[in-house]
Amino acid sequence: MYVSIRDEMVLSTGFDSLAQGLKFFGLNAVELNVGRDFRVRALTPTEDRPFLYLDRDEDVRQLGEQASASGIRISALLMGNNFNAPDLGTELAWAVRTIRAAADLGIPAVRIDAIMHGERDLPTAQRQDIFARGVRTVLNGTDGLPVDLGIENHGFQGNDPEFLDGLMERVASPRLGMTIDTGNFYWFGYPLERVYEILEKFAPLTKHTHIKNIRYPSEMVHVQRPMGFEYGKYCCPVPEGDIDHGKVVGFLRTAGYERDLCIEDESLGKFDETTRRANIRATVEHLNACLAG
Description:
single chain; eight-stranded parallel β-sheet; two-stranded antiparallel sheet; 12 strands; 44% helix
């Protein structure tokens, strides 16, 4: 395992270049967000080319050259897809082309989103069927490529173990697993002990991770809370929260996971630029200590 970071986290600390920011934080791995126009941040941007586009072969080649020249590993691509979108064909084509670009770049995982249109209005089985059809179409369209899909435990249905279990059973592909967000089950309202149970349960399915933390008042740690309860108030730097990431690393290591721990500190907006940088550096040190332990 190794530590990576989301591109947005790096840029939120004042760097215009991902390569410069990663060097500052002592990291060499990053997750890139993919826009619906296939746009990703260049690793070493120029004034006229801050972005590259994954639906352009030349841009994919340039991104690979930038990664090689700067010693950066692109640990994953991040998509905010919707498998119940009105224009589903466009949605699926976006996913297929992104995965093909990932394969060309040697990127092992693409994060796909659990959130989809109408998820609160449909019964669980119907939502599982809709999502499974979309995933199977994407997997079939990228058959044979060495790229896994990680469904993030994100939002209402993505944090429901029943939904996730049924979905995995319906698709039954070794290429489909989880982007485990270590803070989102806690955000959803589960008591801390239940969060650990769920994280351990899904550790064998982990393809990629997002690492964040929350610090609730002591009387709220071990009780069920409303979904998203005062998250903006209680989200915090990774080393300062209730979730013990040393324990989470243990779950992942036991399951045989060897990929990244990707920093996604959503508390950065509470701090000035200098403190954001200090917090990310502290998180890098903390996660490296968890890995060493």
